[in-house]
Amino acid sequence: TVLPARGGILKKKGQHEAELKPLAQSHATKHKIPVKYLEFISEAIIQVLQRKHSGDFGADAQAAMKKALELFRNDIAAKYKELGFQG
């Protein structure tokens, strides 16, 4: 469920407030996932994509994915702050 949720948010191209808010709330209050773990998960996603799709996931695609995942983490971190979660 993690990858489909992230994929849906990424497809919104910045217009993801409605999807991000409940996701951030559950990650902060129910799962208590710190932002640093989201960074680790993001790196793991990129590594898996490199291994599974090396021919289609070159340097440009990797850079774009890293940037998109970084923006996602920044948005989650901002929501965490609004919720008072110090993760």
Automatic annotation (TrEMBL):
Gene Ontology cellular component annotations, sorted alphabetically: extracellular exosome; sarcoplasm
Coiled-coil intervals, chain numbering: none
Keyword Transport: yes
Gene3D superfamilies hit by this protein: 6.10.140.2100, 6.10.140.2110
Predominant localisation class: cytoplasm
Record's subcellular location: Cytoplasm, Sarcoplasm
TM ranges: none
UniProt cross-references to InterPro entries, sorted A to Z: Globin, Globin-like_sf, Myoglobin
The Globin domain, residue ranges: 1-81
The protein's role, per its UniProt record: Monomeric heme protein which primary function is to store oxygen and facilitate its diffusion within muscle tissues. Reversibly binds oxygen through a pentacoordinated heme iron and enables its timely and efficient release as needed during periods of heightened demand. Depending on the oxidative conditions of tissues and cells, and in addition to its ability to bind oxygen, it also has a nitrite reductase activity whereby it regulates the production of bioactive nitric oxide.
Record protein name field: Myoglobin
Protein species of origin: Neovison vison (American mink)
